[in-house]
Design brief:
Radius of gyration: 18 Å
Low-confidence stretches: none
Number of helices: 2
Strand content: under 5%
Distance between the termini: 43 Å
Structural class: mainly alpha
Helix content: over 70%
Mean pLDDT: 88
Shape: elongated
Number of strands: 0
Length: about 50
């Protein structure tokens, strides 16, 4: 069995960075949806849902 050396501080920092990136993406996407006509963004959502 392999010995796993995990740096918990590094893992925690990576998790926090990932969370921050997700929040930024959500804000950016919400702004895009607000300023983009419904016909355009709804057609893109339709492609994802199918």
């Amino acid at each position: 069995m392999k010995n796993l050396n995990i740096d918990l501080n590094k893992l925690k920092k990576s998790k926090e960075q990932n969370f921050e990136e997700r929040l930024k993406f959500i804000d950016m996407y919400a702004e895009w949806v607000k300023k983009t006509p419904n016909k355009i963004w709804s057609s893109q959502h339709k492609k994802i849902i199918k």
